[in-house]
Automatic annotation (TrEMBL):
Signal peptide range: 1-16
Annotated family: Belongs to the CRF-binding protein family.
Subcellular location: Secreted
Protein name: Corticotropin-releasing factor-binding protein
Chief localization: secreted
Task of the protein: Binds CRF and inactivates it. May prevent inappropriate pituitary-adrenal stimulation in pregnancy.
Length: 359
């Protein structure tokens, strides 16, 4: 038992590093996706600890290698199988779901499901490829499946229409409007989602999720409330946002704006009332939604710096946004961490900052 306690303590310490995954661990299935990230040695220790704890109670006879089992053993077996290149991760898709791993996710309606959505998220340096297969729905009866390039939360889109390269209607891929038997799409950033409505029981589809490396990530939704990141925009007229759905402290550690494209171009030296007129700048935003165009501007910087600039943003969503004119190579490096409850700045009376607080 002492050995088991020691192993469990080691596992707890090791898995504490992945605590940022917990907000997405809403059920055993999504917890299984989190478990897949553990090393093989760590999973083996966890399983041995489980057996040791259950052997004293006689419960080990209930541990079975069964595909229908939803227990810890099946999750560990699944993780071990996934290490094989031939193994493909599969599980049912729920009416409201969050997916963070590649695989095949099958939805079969047991009753009419009229308002369903699945949110998919990848690492910041990845984009998401989605494919619909084995579709059995009745479009003429009002069924539909739509892929969306981004997320929609509380009626707001991420990335915002101002920051996305496609027009709003171009971001939707509608299965019922396509003549093909299968429909696919690829996101422009590390998040995507599907909406679907199915009236008839036993109707459904399979969603295939794959991840593709993105050399220049732009418009990122962070999976974690803590970390660091560097956004680079090389000679493109584009705005990029890094969104953190937590109240955080953001520290800008490096900012390079206005590296000339050629010797004929020099960085702008004109003084602007704020940075919006300079064409190349970084701004910090805070708000309770995900649309950056509706968020409160906390601070902006339009000059290069090498040092520490930091800000505490006590909002549901905190954003670092890089605006680029396309004339230069712009880069911003920053760190962020979750604020403790006692660190969240207090709101000020009768001000625009009542909806969230900054310091």
């Amino acid at each position: 038992m002492l050995v088991c306690l020691s192993v469990c303590a080691a596992i707890k310490a090791a898995t504490s590093q992945d605590a940022h995954l917990l907000p997405f661990c809403a059920s055993e299935n999504t917890c299984g996706e989190t478990l897949l990230r553990m090393s093989a040695a760590l999973r083996a220790q966890l399983f041995l600890c489980l057996i040791s704890l259950l052997s004293g109670t006689g419960l080990t006879r209930y541990i079975e290698d069964n595909e229908a089992s939803d227990g810890l053993y099946s999750l560990i077996s699944l993780a071990q199988k996934r290490e094989s290149e031939d193994f493909i991760f599969r599980r049912p898709l729920r009416c409201l779901d969050m997916l963070a791993t590649e695989g095949y996710f099958t939805f079969v309606a047991s009753r009419p499901q009229l308002a369903c959505a699945a949110f998919i998220i990848a690492e910041p340096s990845e984009v998401i490829s989605l494919e619909l297969s084995d579709v059995s729905i009745d479009c003429s009866a009002g069924d539909f499946i739509k892929i969306f390039d981004g997320w929609v939360l509380k009626g707001e889109k991420f990335p915002s229409s101002n920051d996305h390269p496609l027009l709003p209607h171009e971001r939707y891929t509608d299965y019922c409007s396509s003549a093909a038997s299968s429909v696919s799409g690829q996101s422009s950033q590390n998040v995507a989602m599907i909406f679907f409505r199915i009236h008839s029981p036993e109707s459904g589809f399979t969603l295939v999720v794959k991840k593709v490396h993105n050399p220049f990530p732009c418009n990122i939704m962070s999976q974690s409330p803590e970390g660091s990141f560097t956004m680079v925009m090389p000679h493109q007229r584009r705005n990029c946002s890094f969104s953190i759905i937590y109240p955080v402290e953001i520290r800008l550690t490096d900012l390079s704006l206005g590296d000339a494209k050629s010797n004929e171009i020099s960085p702008l030296r004109q003084k602007w009332p704020g940075c919006s007129g300079s064409g190349d700048y970084v701004e910090l935003l805070g708000g309770n939604g995900v649309d950056t165009s509706k968020m409160f501007p906390v601070a902006d910087l339009c000059f290069s710096l090498s040092g520490l600039a930091q800000m505490k943003i006590g909002c549901d969503n905190s954003v670092v946004r890089l605006v680029s004119s396309g004339n230069y190579i712009n880069r911003v490096t920053f760190q962020y961490r979750l604020l403790d409850q006692n660190e969240i700045p207090k709101t000020r009376e009768n001000s625009l900052e009542n909806f969230c607080s900054v310091e």
